[in-house]
Amino acid sequence: MFDIGFWELVVVGVVALLVVGPEDFPKLVRTAMGGISKARRMMAAMRDDLEREVGRADDLKRLVEDEVRLKELHDKLAELPKDLNIPSSIAIADGKKVDHDRANTAPADQDPAKEDLAGSNTRSR
Q1: In whole angstroms, how far apart are CA 67 and each of 36, 54, 57, 59?
Q2: Terminus-to-terminus CA distance in the chain, angstroms?
Q3: Which residues of the chain have pLDDT under 70?
Q4: Coil, helix or strand for 93?
Q5: Read out DSSP for 30-90?
Q6: What is the pTM of this model?
C-alpha cells in the first residue's frame, strides 16, 4: 500500500527506538500495530459495503432493462393481431381483451362440418 520495503522499515524502527527509548518502544509498536490493524478492518468493511452497493445497482439496472424489454414485447403483442388480421383471445385492442366468441365466428356460407367431410373424402380416394 505504501511501498515500504524491509530495510526502510528497519531504519524507521531504529530511529523510533533512539527517539522514544528502549522502555517505551514496545508500547509504541503495540499501539502502531493496533492502529494499522484497525485501519485495515475499516478499509475491508468499506470495500465490502461498496461492493454490496455496486451489486445492488447492477441488480437494479438489470431489473430496469427487463422491464423495458417486457414493455416492448407487450407493445409488439398488442400490435401483432392488427398486422396479421388474426383474431385472438389474448389480443389486446385499446387496452381491452378481444371478445373470443365474436372474433372467431365463421361466415354464414361456410360450414366447418362440410369442409371436414369434403377433406376426408378427398383423402380416402
Answers
A1: 47, 20, 15, 12
A2: 90
A3: 1-2, 81-125
A4: strand
A5: HHHHHHHHHHHHHHHHHHHHHHHHHHHHHHHHHHHHHHHHHHHHHHHHHHHHHHHT---TT
A6: 0.45
